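Entry for the shared binder. Reason: the reviewer on the internal report wants the predicted structure included alongside the sequence.
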Amino acid sequence: MRKEALQQGLTVLALSVVLSGFGVKAFQEPRPPRGYSIPLIDLAAETQRQVIVDKEPGQYLGHPTTVLLEDKKTIIAVYPKGHGRGAILLKRSTDGGLTWSERLPTPKSWETSLETPTIHRVVDKRGKKRLILFSGLYPIRLSVSEDDGQRWSELKPIGDFGGIVAMGSVERLKNGDYLALFHDDGRFFTKGGKRSEFMTLYQTLSRDGGLTWSAPQELFKSEQIHLCEPGVIRSPNGRQLAMLLRENRRVRNSYVMFSDDEAKTWSAPKELPGALTGDRHTGKYAPDGRLFLSFRDTTHESKTKGDWVAWVGRYDDIVHGREGQYRVRLMDNFKNDKGWDSDCAYPGVEILPDGTFVSTTYGHWIEGQPPFIVSVRLKLRELEAKAKQVNRNSPRN
């Protein structure tokens, strides 16, 4: 334990050294492009791909996350009745997202949720399967189901700390522990906190299959760039973790951090190309090994800025700072502000055995109406012919 604690201390120290010089050195280095040159495939008009998960006249429905169960056809979705804050709603699909249930019964405490809920499948070291649901701000609270979402415990605090978009990413480590990540700007990490000029990334670990969580460890903190909403992707060979990050000051592209030792240490943040710039990166691998990442488009130079988009490429493209293969506009978001605060695309991404991606999110899909929840279905092979027809330079503004 002493050795592990010392290593964690050295990690924080190393990141602090990086931070202290960040505003001078890193901002003088050559920057990746603010736009992108890979093809853009537009699926927004292909309504046959779209399935309405939930819609209520006059009611804002937003910020869903999903989980695919082991039968590879049952998908569970959770989302708030409101913008982050609001009663958590629950629906289930038993046919891979083609049809959805009515809203299902939930614990009374779910009505008190303060922020975006997130749902994850975990399996403890004895093989016990659970679904866990987090609700953020202060304090971060947890609800557990041990029967695949039929019954849930009430929300209870996991500790004396809070955070924003709590546990948007949860990853099983090789030793069977679980890694969870979140961020905060000072307002919610402690009771009665106040906003600071810094944004801080945190991680926490569970050694008992998601029931209890360790005190948070600070990973990165900066006032120059605000890195948040981490989304973790494991490399195809399983040896590396990549953490994709939103840049919330909107002065830079998105960023990535890497870990080669199962989250014991992380590299300094590296700015990504414009092609990978967005909010709330969520992804899965296709059967051919390519990576499909879904996110809100916040690329500085993009004609789909503010829309729900996806990126297709290889994991090595992320490692080496390459643009990837192509981008996809999944749906057109009609909110008037087509910039970074366009209010759409906190997506869940699942992949079915036949290679179908089922990506689910919220957005202003009808002009002048509040957002609602929609899934888009696609296979990468369906996009190949479309990609060849697109002029390689067409996405640039």
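Summary line for the report: The two ends are 53 Å apart (CA to CA).
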